[in-house]
Amino acid sequence: MYRVIGSGNSRARRVLWIMEELGLDYEHVPALPRSEDVVALNPAGKVPVLIADGVPILDSTAILTFLADRHGQLTQQGGTIARAIQDSMTQFLLDEFDSALWMAARHSFVLPEELRQSAIKDSLKWEFTRSQEVLVGRMGPGPFLLGPEMTVPDIILTHCGDWAEAAHFPITQPRLAEYLARMRTRPAYRRAQAA
């Protein structure tokens, strides 16, 4: 059995979702970032942490990739062009979506108040809007991000879409809004949301 450590309103939700998609047995420990339990496993205090075979694995994307590879689902085979395209999309989402949202969070509540720069959010929203245009140009014919099969980037993008809406970063591209609405109907997504 796996153990997922991290509150459900963090990037740990990505891990909970993949667990549900894969039908894996797991224990969820909804620890907060920088809590004693988390720091004992990750000195940076960040969540999620996955305990697999007694070993802590850090970073949501590393965890998603590990689980998809280990269980042979939600991913393309390593060393293939399809996997290179999948990995390229993953990096794009992390660079263009996740990073903008994380920077906005840092300047909203993560950093000490005296270090926060609220004006940065305007430029981050502008970048986020521009990135949506680029993303729509890269999307496959569907129903998933890269075509007919769900992969790790679908989890990352949908989580970023949820995060964006919570942070008041508008989803401006109709195709992206339709995609997010469709992904949110998945039973595994809903189970992860309830965790």
From TrEMBL:
Q: Which Gene3D superfamilies match?
A: 1.20.1050.10, Glutaredoxin
Q: Where is the GST C-terminal domain?
A: 79-195
Supply the source organism's classification: Bacteria, Pseudomonadati, Pseudomonadota, Alphaproteobacteria, Rhodobacterales
Q: Which domain of life is it from?
A: Bacteria
Entries under PANTHER family matching the protein: GLUTATHIONE S-TRANSFERASE GSTA (PTHR44051:SF8), GLUTATHIONE S-TRANSFERASE-RELATED (PTHR44051)
Task: Name the species this protein comes from.
Answer: Rhodovulum viride
Enumerate the InterPro entries for this protein.
Glutathione-S-Trfase_C-like (IPR010987), Glutathione-S-Trfase_C_sf (IPR036282), Glutathione_S-Trfase (IPR040079), Glutathione_S-Trfase_N (IPR004045), Thioredoxin-like_sf (IPR036249)
Q: Boundaries of each GST N-terminal domain copy? A: 1-75
Q: What is this protein called?
A: Glutathione S-transferase
